[in-house]
Amino acid sequence: MITRRDLLKLSGLGLGIALLPDGFMLVKASENPQIKPHLWASITKDNYLVLLINKSEMGQGVYTGLSMIVADELDFPWGRVIVKPAPAKDTYIDKKMGSQLTGGSTSIRNMYEFLRLLGASMKEMILESASREWKVPKEKLQAQMGYVSYTNKKASYGELWEKALKLPIPTKVRLKDPSEFLYIGKGVPRIDTEEKVEGKAIFGIDVRRKDMVYAVVERPPYFGAKPQSVDDSQARQMKDVLDVFTISSGVAVCAKTVEGALKGREKLRVAWTKSPLEGFDDERLSQYYLDMLKKKGVVARKDGDPILVLEKAKRKTSAVYLLPYLYHATMEPMACVVDVKEDRCIIYAPVQAQTWTLQTAKRITGLPEDKIEVYTTYLGGGFGRKSNVEFVKEALEISKRIKKPVKLIYTREDDVKSGWYRPMNATHLEGALDEKGRVIAIYHKIAVPAVFEWAGRPSQVDKAAVEGIENMFYEIPHVHVEFVKVDLPIPVWFWRSVGSTHNAFTLETFIDRLAKIGNRDPVELRLELLKNHERAQKVIQVAAEKAGWGKRPKHGDAMGLAYHYSFGSHVAQVAEVSLDKNSGQIRVHRVVCAIDIGPLVVHPNLLISQVESAVVMGLSAATKEKVSFSKNGPISLNFDTYPLLTMSEAPHVEVHIVRSEGPMGGVGEPALPPVAPAVANALLWGYGIQINNLPMTPESIRSLL
Amino acid sequence: MVELYLNGRRYKVNAEEDTPLLWVIREHIGFTGTKFGCGKGICGACTVLVEENPTRSCITPVGSVKGKRIITIEGIPSDHPVKRAWIELDVPQCGYCQPGQIVEAYALLKKKPKASKEEIVSVMSSHLCRCGTYGRILKAIQRAQKLMEVKA
Ligand code: FES
Ligand code: FES
Questions:
Q1: Where do the H-state alpha helices sit in A566-674?
Q2: Concatenated DSSP letters for A172-223?
Q3: Mean pLDDT of A624-630
Q4: How far is residue A664's CA from residue A488's CA, in Å, rounded to a whole number?
Q5: Is the Cβ atom of B39 under 6 angstroms away from ligand 1?
Q6: How would you class A220 by CB atoms within 10 Å of its CB: exposed for 0-12, middle for 13-18, buried for 19 or more?
Q7: B residues 70-129 near A, CB within 8 Å?
Q8: Which of A206, A622, A648, B140 is 20 to 30 A from A360, comparing alpha carbons?
Q9: Are residues B135 and B98 both part of a single domain?
Q10: Which CATH architecture has domain A4-197?
Q11: B36 lines ligand 1 (CB under 6 A)
Q12: Does one domain contain both B7 and B65?
């Protein structure tokens, strides 16, 4: 039975590759009516390889990482590769995810085999074509850098391509031995750099269509409120304003210009119904989460009898953590261009989720799938936020109503007010040591909203809520993990590294506290807890060694280490920190990171970029970020009240790649979770400070001194 | 009607004088390399040069720059050391903040080709990059300084 099937329509011939459970087979689409002819790759006459990539480029380098895999197997010059975003179609669904979606640090892992096969199959067909043309056995031909040659004959792939497509299709292809790789494992220049440096890369906000109008949406101050009455009389009189109307999320103002829409909105008078959240300011939210923590939840894991052991233990400690809502703060706020016509709908959007965009468009327009075109632009940052496509839904509603192409723009304030935060959470941890200082019990209980339920995948125990805890590698005889679902109507969503953002912080800082009361070295304690997990041990050892663990820190005054496994990868980080006791200001000088994503790193420099990026984002959140609320809603509406880390605060990041056997892990997210606990652990050992609340702002640090 | 002198060409734009320069450049004229990030002068994504000075176009009324020489990311030559260094080091990730960063770096090196690391960090810290490319931006500016020395 065919389990996976798709790919590769080449130059209109309807060629496809069927992926069988026991291997790959090339078939002609015409011979297999189940294969829809769609394009993955073609080679132009003048020898350019054009690839359609089904993953969104949001900075992680996926256009480069995926296309270099094809170019490598094909033996094609990197400088002649062109990438285009694949439209939203079943063909381009990532079969391992069941959706056309970029997330979970999975792109290379999920597409690697498929793309190698694609390149290898193309090359095989080109060789066959040359062999027939020149009447030379295939084995005698050389395929190299986009050319096939034999003695004095030479032809480009582009010249052979059309004929190649008319040949019978190979049923078996040989994949390269790693020793033959041209690019894989070495790297290539990023394919998107030049466009981005020239200001020519087109993001969602940059799309321009003929007769396009602009829209902004006035949103309720707090989630859940609806417009009760709208006075748009003044707004309508503003220059350029075309229309004002209510949509599902608020009140849309449409105008001929963006400034007209913004000015029109200023004149809008909307009375909102009472939000169910009214009164939930920072203080009340904190209390609410702490109260929820006292409720009975669902047990996600139970080994041994942790409660009894904790009761009897002599050496034990406990802590209650409270971590804030976080905002993604993609530098490009939500923006897209949508054109809904009677018989057709075109969407240009910076989305991580093409399938969901398509489904949303079907629902709003009532058009069949084949009348809806979804084109993914570059994403000015994603971090999970742009897998939520509510903003596209708004644009669809507006375009449908006004019957024109619409560019919807969120201001920064709109972007914060739209929600979809990393959830706030409260965690209760208890742990006990035996007389030898070994960790014998951990009790972990978290009160947190269910992110997966918000994304339409509810379950008893939300996967995000307990990830990194329920599946931790630490071998502790008595373990209790419990989840209390918080059901507030503040929208939450995936935020780079998701549940690990908070669970790594609580668990890893707690491990160090246990080490402290047991008079143990935290590195040595971790190695003991991970004695059967070589990969985990190795990254800890490498990070510790490279940072000079046990010696005086090279920079700063204190050192802390944290380890976390997420998205298939093991990461350990050591942070070198100093603290100005008068101001409470901490400074992170250097972060040494060891990362193991398995035996193969397709593009080492991209991995390094992602680690640098994750460390900066993780540190930014840990030291500066928190969405604050007044009784009437979120108040951290721009970068003055929701500050991000700047260059002067960014640490030097040092990356060490550790290779091991095992399945390939992800790269985009796993380096984020360890940084916050590594910094907090440095404060624990260096200054005796225990961090139970984030962010570690100067005020909060001062209050602990 | 406002007349602008942008990237070496004159444009007549039908916009009110109080319209932020950003929207005129991007949406009226169509140079979309200049980005909208915060609208409050905080993030630097909208930075352009007005008479050589890095300027936050989101808080600059278009009426205040009539007839002045404005340069955007598209107006900086491709072979300029700053752009070359940026490419050499593969600085951009998502790329959204980069035009603003590059324009700022270009202006800085024009004024102070030998700017110290501390000076670079201090100037560039007024720009936000959510992708955390700060380390590479710093390296690229230092690399551009080297490239400029060779040229000089
Ligand atoms: S958009 Fe102008 S400084 Fe942020
Ligand atoms: S490269 Fe993405 S915000 Fe700077």
A1: 604-624
A2: --PPPPGGG-SSTTT----TTHHHHHHT---BGGG---TT-EEEEEE--SST
A3: 98
A4: 37
A5: yes
A6: buried
A7: 72-74, 78, 83, 86-87, 90-99, 102, 121-122, 124-129
A8: A206
A9: yes
A10: 2-Layer Sandwich (3.30)
A11: yes
A12: yes
ipTM above 0.90, yes or no: yes
From CA B137, how far away is CA B105, in angstroms rounded? 9
Q: Are residues B7 and B69 in the same domain?
A: yes
The span from the CA of A87 to the CA of A38, in Å, is 10
Q: pLDDT per residue over A279-317, tens digit each?
A: 999 999 999 999 999 999 999 999 999 999 999 999 999
3-state secondary structure of A57: coil
SS3 B152: coil
Question: Is the pLDDT score of A14 beyond 50?
Answer: no
Report whether B138 contacts B117 (CB < 8 A). yes
What type of residue sits at position A687?
A: Y
Model pLDDT for residues A52-106, shown as the tens digit of each residue: 999 999 999 999 999 999 999 999 999 999 999 999 998 899 989 999 999 999 9
Q: Are residues B21 and B59 in the same domain?
A: yes
Nearest to B130 among A409, A605, A617 (CB): A617
A378 Cα: distance to centroid of ligand 1 (angstroms): 20
Which residue type sits at A176?
Answer: K
Q: Name the closest-CA residue to atom 3, ligand 2.
A: B129
Element (H, E) at A252: strand A250-255
Residue B131, domain extent: 81-151
- Taking an 8 Å cut-off on Cβ atoms, the answer to whether B131 and A381 are in contact is yes
- Residue spans per domain, chain A: 4-197, 204-274+334-409, 282-326+421-704
Distance CA A347, CA A332 (A): 17
- Tell me how close the Cα of A656 comes to any Cα of chain B, in angstroms: 16
Could you tell me which residues come within 8 angstroms of residue A334 by beta carbon, excluding any fewer than 6 positions away? A204, A385, A386, A391, A408, A410, A414, A415, A418
Looking at the 3D structure of chain B, how many domains does it have?
A: 2
- Residue B77 C-beta-side C-alpha neighbours within 13 Å: 3
Provide the edge-to-edge strand list for the sheet that holds A241-247. A241-247, A250-255, A213-218, A406-409, A335-340, A345-349, A372-376
Give the residue from A338, A359, A355 showing the smallest Cα distance to A102: A355
Q: Are B97 and B68 within one domain? A: no
Contact list, A647 vs chain B (CB under 8 Å): 121, 124-125, 127, 134, 137-138
Enter the CATH code of domain A282-326+421-704: 3.30.365.10
* Neighbouring C-alpha atoms within 13 Å toward the C-beta of A73: 23
Q: Are residues B138 and B85 in the same domain?
A: yes
Out of A333, A382, A616, closest to residue B134 by CB: A616
CATH entry 3.30.365.10 includes domain A204-274+334-409: yes
CA separation for the pair A241, A567 (Å, rounded): 47
Q: What is the pTM of this model?
A: 0.95
- Residue A86 β-bridge partners: none
List residues bridging with A485 in a β-sheet. Answer: A448
